[in-house]
């Protein structure tokens, strides 16, 4: 293993050897590699070695490897890896100014049970974008390395998300620019999809979300009145400061992190087969707009919707309550 040192922290030398091989291979394929990608490499290496282990003792040993953030830091240090930036939501508010408003909001919320207090917000998701920084393979030169197309991907949707104070989630919705994305013809959209020329939330789209997503969900779980807290976006019906919103306080960030982790995981799993999959798709004359993960390409909106749903499932009720 190039540059590795024999230290107490390197108990899983074979795992780290495989991870380094993956990193070198990923960089040869011009894949951008950050710490979360190295974690994904570690998990994949553990699974492969665990499955190939000839004895139960070795299988148990590998099962104890969890690719933690601490391990990544030590792995980077042990192997003298360098990160390089490649070229090619809640804002600050005046606490005193919102103190009275916070009091009113809290008094209003106290009139409802947690199951009947909802918070909704939207967030932009560049569903194809890859990180701009990467760890380099030992053979790469920092002065000459260049980026890839994925780091500049501008394909964007707006995600509508809403939860109750008790942790119940309203179904995820997307806003995109295409009226009828071709990829939805493959197996249908798993979420409610709205179109808008800029993929933004406006008054028209918000009313559609309200009537087609939010109200049906609410009426499926309660017949009581509910309170919906939203920010001061022009498409919304009320003015609420970001500090009063659990969504801005971390739920959206938790969802985006999980989405990005899953995106990187798929890229890691398919990095060696992507070129072959793309060639097969080309021979099969897969139409533009339907090229996605299964064809070795960047995710289309259908892939993004499915990843978004998986990521939302992992945002636990306790996270929402906090």
Overview of the structural elements:
This protein folds into 2 domains: 13-81, no CATH class; 95-131 and 138-321, 2-Layer Sandwich (Nucleotidyltransferase, domain 5), CATH 3.30.420. The protein is of the alpha/beta class. The model is unreliable at 1-10 and 235-243 (pLDDT under 50). Strand 5 (173-176), helix 6 (184-187) and strand 6 (192-195) form a beta-alpha-beta unit. It is 44% helix and 11% strand. The chain has helices spanning 13-28, 35-52, 56-63, 69-78, 95-109, 184-187, 203-221, 247-270, 274-283, 301-313, 317-321; strands spanning 83-85, 117-125, 133-135, 157-164, 173-176, 192-195, 227-229. It is built from 11 helices and 7 strands. The protein starts with 12 loop residues before the first helix and ends with a helix. Helix 1 crosses helix 2 (35-52), helix 2 (35-52) runs antiparallel to helix 3 and helix 2 crosses helix 8.
In short:
The chain is of the alpha/beta class. It has helices at residues 13-28, 35-52, 56-63, 69-78, 95-109, 184-187, 203-221, 247-270, 274-283, 301-313, 317-321, and strands spanning 83-85, 117-125, 133-135, 157-164, 173-176, 192-195, 227-229. It is built from eleven helices and seven strands.
The largest pleated sheet is described as: 5 strands, mixed
Mean pLDDT metric: 83
In percent, how helical is the residue content? 40-55%
Shape: globular
Q: What's the total helix number?
A: 11
Strand order of the largest sheet: 6-5-4-2-7
* Whole-number count of domains: 2
Decide which structural class fits the backbone.
alpha/beta
Approximate strand percentage:
5-15%
What would CATH call the architecture of the largest domain?
A: 2-Layer Sandwich
Q: End-to-end distance, in Å? A: 43 Å
Q: How many beta-strand segments? A: 7
- Order of H and E elements: HHHHEHEEEEHEHEHHHH
Q: Give the radius of gyration.
A: 23 Å
CATH topology of the largest domain: Nucleotidyltransferase, domain 5
CATH top level assignment of the largest domain: Alpha Beta
Low-confidence stretches: 1-10, 235-243
């Amino acid at each position: 293993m190039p540059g590795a040192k024999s230290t107490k922290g390197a108990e899983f030398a074979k795992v780290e050897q495989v991870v380094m091989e993956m990193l070198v291979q990923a960089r040869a394929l011009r894949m951008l590699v950050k710490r979360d990608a190295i974690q994904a490499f570690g998990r994949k290496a553990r699974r492969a070695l665990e499955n190939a282990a000839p004895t139960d003792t070795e299988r148990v040993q590998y099962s104890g490897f969890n690719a933690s953030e601490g391990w990544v830091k030590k792995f980077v240090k042990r192997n003298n890896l360098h990160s390089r930036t490649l070229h090619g939501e809640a804002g600050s508010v005046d606490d005193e100014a919102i103190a009275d408003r916070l009091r009113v909001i809290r008094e209003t919320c106290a009139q409802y049970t947690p199951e009947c207090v909802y918070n909704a917000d939207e967030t932009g998701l560049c569903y194809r974008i890859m990180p701009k920084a990467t760890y380099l393979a030992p053979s790469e030169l920092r002065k000459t390395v260049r980026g890839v197309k994925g780091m500049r991907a501008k394909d964007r949707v707006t995600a509508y998300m809403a939860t109750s104070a008790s942790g119940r989630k309203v179904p995820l919705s997307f806003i995109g620019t295409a009226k009828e994305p071709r990829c939805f013809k493959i197996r249908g959209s798993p979420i409610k999809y709205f179109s808008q020329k800029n993929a933004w939330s406006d008054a028209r789209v918000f009313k559609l979300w309200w009537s087609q997503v939010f109200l049906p969900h609410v009426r499926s779980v309660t017949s009581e009145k509910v309170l919906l807290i939203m920010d001061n976006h022009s498409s919304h019906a009320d003015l609420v400061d970001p500090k009063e919103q659990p969504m801005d306080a971390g739920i959206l960030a938790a969802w985006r992190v999980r989405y990005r982790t899953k995106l990187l995981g798929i890229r890691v799993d398919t990095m060696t087969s992507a070129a072959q999959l793309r060639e097969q798709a080309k021979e099969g004359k897969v139409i533009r707009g339907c090229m996605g993960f299964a064809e070795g390409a960047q995710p289309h909106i259908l892939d993004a919707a499915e990843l978004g749903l998986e990521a939302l499932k992992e945002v636990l009720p306790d996270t929402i309550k906090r």
